[in-house]
């Protein structure tokens, strides 16, 4: 009789990843209600980049985004612009980059913890 060896760390990691991703997507469009000012700024700049290739200051494909007296992460804005281009401008597409990055970092933190220490510490880290 063939026995399938189940890797308990992989099963736990999968469960944690699925639960973590579920809660990141749960009520994504309604909690918190409406966009915060950072989300509005990123959404506006990402929409502008997706439509015209310019930011709110009419700079073509800038490396630095300035809004509300501070600077925004350009990678975040450009990734959000891709989602806006495909799915349209709404609160979910603005938040989607954060949700996907947060879900990905569950795996990254596990991999870092398990490489530096061991699999048990990798699971505890997440």
Number of domains: 1
**Strand arrangement across the biggest beta sheet:** 1-2
Computed Rg: 19 Å
Shape: elongated
Summarize the amount of helix as a percent range: 55-70%
Low-confidence blocks of residues: none
Q: Compute the average pLDDT.
A: 93
Q: Give me the number of helical elements.
A: 5
- Give the strand tally: 2
Beta-strand portion reads under 5%
In whole angstroms, how far apart are the ends?
A: 36 Å
Structural class: mainly alpha
Order of helical and strand elements: HHEEHHH
* Biggest pleated sheet: 2 strands, antiparallel
Quaternary organization = single chain
Membrane topology: Multi-pass membrane protein
Protein name: 4-amino-4-deoxy-L-arabinose transferase
GO molecular function: pentosyltransferase activity
Subcellular location: Cell membrane
Task: Tell me about this structure.
There is one protein chain. The protein has 126 residues and is mainly α. Helix 2 (37-52) crosses helix 3 (74-87) and helix 4 (91-116) packs antiparallel against helix 5. Helices cover 64% and strands 5% of the residues. It has a two-stranded antiparallel ribbon.
């Amino acid at each position: 009789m063939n026995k399938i060896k189940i890797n308990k760390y992989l099963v736990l990691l999968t469960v944690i990843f699925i639960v973590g991703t579920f809660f990141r997507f749960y009520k994504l469009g309604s909690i918190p209600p409406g966009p915060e000012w950072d989300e509005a700024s990123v959404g506006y700049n990402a929409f502008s980049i997706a439509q015209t290739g310019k930011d709110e200051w009419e700079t073509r494909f800038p490396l630095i985004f300035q809004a509300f007296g501070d600077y925004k992460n350009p990678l975040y804005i450009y990734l959000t612009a891709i989602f806006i281009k495909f799915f349209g401008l709404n609160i979910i597409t603005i938040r989607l980059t954060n949700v996907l990055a947060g879900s990905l970092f569950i795996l990254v933190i596990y991999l870092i913890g398990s490489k530096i220490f061991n699999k048990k510490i990798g699971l505890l880290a997440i």
